[in-house]
Each structure stands twice: as C-alpha cells, then as structure tokens.
Amino acid sequence: MMKKLRISLINIHGLLKGSGLEIGRDADNGGQTKYIYELAEFLSQHEDVEHVHLFTRLIDDPALSPEYAVPVEIINDKLDIRRIPFLGKKYKAKEQLWEGLDLFVNGTMQHIKQHNIFPDWIHSHYADAGYAAAELSAVLNIPFAHTGHSLGFYKKKKLIESGETEEELEKKFKFKTRISAEERTLELAEFIVTSTEQEIETYKAYKNFELGKYHAISPGIDTRKFVPYYYQENDSEKNMEEIQRKYWVQESISKFLTNPHKPIILALSRPDRHKNLNTLIDVYGKDKELQSIANLVIFAGIRKDIAKMPESEKNVLTDLLLLMDKYDLYGKMAIPKKHDVENEVSIIYRYAAEKRGVFVNLALHENFGLTVIESASSGLPVVVTKNGGPSEIIPVCQNGELVNPQEESQIKKALRNILTDENQWKYYSNNGAINIQKYYSWVSHVNQYVDLINENLSVSSTGIKKQHYPNINISRLKRKIDHLLVSDIDGTLIEPKLANPGLKELKAHLTNRTEKMAFAMASGRNLDLVKKVIDEEEFPLPDFIICSVGTEIYYTNGKDYILDKGWAKFLAGRWKREDIVNRLKAIKWIKIQEEEAQNPFKISYYYDKEHYNHDELITALETGWYKVNIIPSHGQFLDFIPKRASKGNAIKFLCRKWSIPLSNVIAAGDSGNDVDMFRGPIKGIIVGNRSAELADYETTKSIYVAKASASEGILEGLKYYKVIK
C-alpha cells in the first residue's frame, strides 16, 4: 500500500486565512489566492493525502485582520496554514519580498524541523515561491512541482511596450531576480502545472523551456458553492442565510438603477487595465438599444476611497467612472464599491442568471478564465475573450460565445444574440450548469494531480530529477541530535608538526558515530581547502562545514556542498566591503591575500606581527569599525568579517535552524579565532598545543583545557564530557 502523502504548498505573498478571503483588495489578492486556498482544501479531502501544510508569510499589521499574525491556523484535521515571519511585520507587495526569500526559506526549514513535518512533496505558486521551493528541495532532498500563475517575461514586455524604462522597471519589479528564479524553477521542478495546453506555449520564451516538464490540469471550482440559479437548499437555516445575502446583493446593485428588473450584463474582475472593462462600457454606452434591453453591472475589486488606492487601480476606476459620465449611464449602470468575495460572488452570478443576464469577460488575455466556469456553473451564459484559456473552455462546455476583446461590433452582436433569444439563452445556461460539474470540479483536478505525484514518486526511490539534485543525507538532518562536535581543523583536528597524535582513533569514532551525534568542521580555510583536507586525510564526511572564518555554511553529501543562503543573507546587513578595503589601504603593515582567500563577507590580509596595532585599524575604519570583526590568527593572518559573522554565530544559527540545543554542542579549537565558539551554553575543548592567545585559559565547568595536543586533546575532552567512554 502506498504511503499517504504529506504535502507542503508555498504561497508567500498575498493574504491567506481560513475565512473571508480578501480577493480584489489589491493586485496581490486576485484569483491566485482563491485558487491556492481551494486547492489546499480539496487536496486535504483526498484519501491518499495525510496532511496539507500551506506556508505563507506572517503579517502583523494593525491595518489588517489579526488572523494574518497567527503562526499556525488549523483549517481542518488535515489542513493548516503556517505563517513564517520575515522582513518585518507590515504587509508588503510581492515585489518587495524578493530580498528576504532566503530568510523565508530559513524560517520554513526551522519550522519543519521543529514540528517534525517533513513533507513528501512541495508545490510552489508564483515565482517567489518557486525560488523558495527550489532551495528547500535542494537541502531537504524533496521533489517539488510549480504553478506560475503569471510570468515575469510577459509582464516586463508589456510594461516596456507601454513606454517604461528598463531601469525604472528593475527598481520597482526586480525582473532580473524574478526571471532567473523562473528559469531555475523550470530546470529543477519535477513538473509545471498549467491551466490549459495553450498556457504551456507561454513558457517557450524561457531559455530553460526544454528542461521543464508540463501538465495541463484545469483548475476546479467548488461546485458545492457555485450551483445553478434554480437550486434550492434543503437546509432551512442555510436557505435563510442565502435569502439575506441575496437581498443585500440586490440592494447594492439596484440602488444604482432606475429599472432594476431588466436583465443584467455582468462583469467581475480586479480594476486592472488588462481586464479591458473600458471596452465593455464603450460597447454599452454607444448602443441605445442594448441600454433599453439590459442594465450594466461592474464589480471591479473592493474600494473605499479611490484617491487613496495604488496608482494603476486608481487610474482604471477613475476611467470607468468618467466613461459612465461620458455616456450618461446614470440609472443604467451599477458599479458597487464592495462585495464579500467568500460568500457573495456565487450569489451575484445566480442573481444575474435569474434576471436572464449574461456574464462578460473581455480581458486582453486570460490565462485560464475561472470566472467563465464559475458563471457557467451558476447557469449564466457568457461572452468571453478568445485569447487564452476560454478558447479551450467554451468548445467543451458550449456555455457562451468567444469574441475578439478589441472588436466592439463582435461583442455587441454576441450580447444581443444571447439577451434577445430565449432559446439560445437556455441552451447556453443548461450546458454550462451540466458540463462544469463534469469537467471542471476541484475533485477531478485533485484526482489528476495526486495521480501525477504518486506516479512521480514511484519513478525512483527519491522521485527527484537526479541530474540536478544533490542527494544530501536528509535523515541525518532530520534526526534528534544529542551531541554536535564542531572542530577547528588546523592545529586542532590535524597538526602535522606533532605527527597528528590520536587522529586515527578520533577518525574511527567519527566514522562509527551513532545517529545521535553530528559532526561539523569549522575553519578559517575556504571550502576548497577544507575539501582538500577531507580528501587527503580521509576524514568521514561532516554534516556541516563552517568555513572562511565563519562567513559561509555548507551542507555536505559526498560530492555536492550546498551553501546556506539564509546565513549569507543574515550577514549582508550593514556590511560595506568596498568601503572597508579602501579605508585599509592606509595601513602599511598589512598586505592583501590572494583572490582565492577572499569571499563576499571576508577580506583577508597577511600582517607583520612586530607592527600589529589594533587601535590603528580602528582609527582607519572610523565609525564603521563596530560593524566589523577583526580577527588576527597564528601571528600572520588578519581577517575582517561582518560583526555578525563568526564561527560562534554560525554555530548558533545552525542550531536554531536544525533545532539542536546549544547545550548539546561541544566545540574544539586551538587559536584566537576559535574563542568565539566557546560562548554561552556551548561546551569548549582547548587542545594542549594552543596558541599564545589562549595561554591563560584554565579548565572550568564549560571549558576543558586538554593536556594532549590536536586530535588526542579532542578525545581527552570528549571523555571529560562523557560523550565517549
């Protein structure tokens, strides 16, 4: 029997909660939010699924509902929303979140380990989540699928065509970062989910198109909610609620209209230029006969005060109201300010269907066309753009007419055809109600999707694109760790001058270590030099490597070494590398080391021991000195690294991320740049061949000063702490 699936869905931006989704609030809260929430809900009801975790950003903003600040929200016994804090508490637009995604990955890893909810499968939504999923997938060795929802390439192209410059766009939308994340996702995801076959074509603009695998699975709708207009609830309480809601919907529309009993031409979308609502008003405004047949009703997002809205939405809404005025449509056109997306949209469709109306979507391009199937399921015929997904829906469902969204005469003809021919109206209405249940329900979507996951996972033991993925021993990272030994290399693990006493015995202990013990190397060396020692000395592979004086952390797996980008992001704050290099040019007794000794967070020099003067360095750095750690070691090397970077801070960071108590850590070292590892609850071993900087240390409760040197001294310390007998 196949193991039940634990699935993690990732949707970083937007507003997700268990009740009352705020769809239409802004550009980040459109159909994607609703799609993901419903996907999660219906996935959790599938018999092959053990649990669904929906990961998003934690937002604690007084301007928003306090629900977005709840770290774990239980939706049902198999579904929860888990909110990870990063980049502050305030709500931010998706474009502002790119710089913090490594912190999101970090927080998610920490959360997964802490709660022991390692997924079998990850699914990312939109480019930012694609970036995060690729990172999580690499370290956790878990496969992922991806849904794009929209693509950076086309958004950028459209904005450049409208006259904006590359520089302006880069500043605002971070297209370089977004498009490279999309490219990497195509390369690493097991497959990409699209809504239609046509949508697969849109990925051809990407270099990595050929590396991707694609599956078109139509989005579903909740057919319990979007029911035909003639459907009656058996439950009298629910029926009562329905009647009340319908009354308020009717009120919000009819207060605009002189004759509210006429059929209605309905449009419902975000106030987005791309949705082309102005063309609909032009068609209606120019045709007196159409005005006598029907009223026009447009729900364009949710607004309180147009003047305070984002520029693009403000412009669209202002244009709609000016067009209403231009054609003098007062009494014939309604443009309500708000609606309850969660509970009222289905009622709006049914209300329009009862009035023998028609639903219109004239978007210049519609990826799928969720509103087209929602209205059809309610028994409301449609007039819809032929560009994109609807051209695959209408032939299957036979529920309305396709038009060119820029051809006014075509739109007018289709509207009149449906509104004035009762048989035609009934034909489209009945087809929609029946065929949507058959082809576009969430149940059929989820069944197809779970089959694809199971098929993918059974292809190989990991189900993962083998050629791309480092195969980290994830069970080592998942396990509960009683002891983590972190050892410096030069002078501690190995000391060639002393013929390496105890090295053979220590290597045997580390090779045969139990699951309860982890091993890390911490060194001033860069990664290549650490790897060289591991190969030459035939060391057992460590779980972690902290190198370049604590400025880099890597996870190991034999051939691949994965950089922890969250640590790099953490170090970047307040670090001005170029400025430091320029200031240090004034110091005569230091000489910059070779290129391979440098990295973005480490500037390395040789120094003349006789002339070393700490105060002179501080004077040269001026006020910036307190943001920099100055580390002299072995009487000849001098490193400048961010204040946050050190072996000790790197250990703390690792322990927090992988839920290892600091009191379970034993650190071994021999020189000044190791001292920082022995702080707080961490236990220390100082080996007998210690350098002059450590000469005054004596054994205390938390630091053991060994008599023996190098590896032999480490063994002595491990016996002292009763880790080995």
Task: Offer a few descriptive terms.
725 residues; 17% strand; alpha/beta; 4 domains; eight-stranded mixed sheet; Rossmann fold
Which SSEs are present, and which pair or pack?
Elements: E1 5-10, H1 31-44, E2 49-57, E3 72-76, E4 79-84, H2 101-115, E5 121-125, H3 126-140, E6 144-147, H4 152-161, H5 166-173, H6 175-188, E7 191-194, H7 197-202, E8 214-216, H8 236-254, E9 264-269, H9 277-286, H10 288-293, E10 295-300, H11 311-326, E11 333-334, H12 341-354, E12 358-361, H13 370-377, E13 382-385, H14 390-397, E14 400-403, H15 408-420, H16 422-439, H17 442-459, H18 474-478, E15 483-488, H19 503-511, E16 517-522, H20 527-537, E17 544-547, E18 552-556, E19 561-563, H21 565-572, H22 577-584, E20 590-592, E21 603-607, H23 614-621, E22 628-633, E23 637-642, H24 647-657, E24 665-669, E25 683-686, E26 703-705, H25 710-720
Parallel strand pairs: 1-2, 1-5, 2-4, 5-6, 6-7, 7-8, 9-10, 9-12, 10-11, 12-13, 13-14, 15-16, 15-24, 16-17, 24-25, 25-26
Antiparallel strand pairs: 3-4, 17-18, 18-19, 20-21, 21-23, 22-23
Helix pairs in contact: 1-17, 2-3, 2-21, 3-6, 8-12, 9-11, 9-15, 13-16
Protein name: sucrose-phosphate synthase
Catalytic activity: beta-D-fructose 6-phosphate + UDP-alpha-D-glucose = sucrose 6(F)-phosphate + UDP + H(+)
EC number: 2.4.1.14
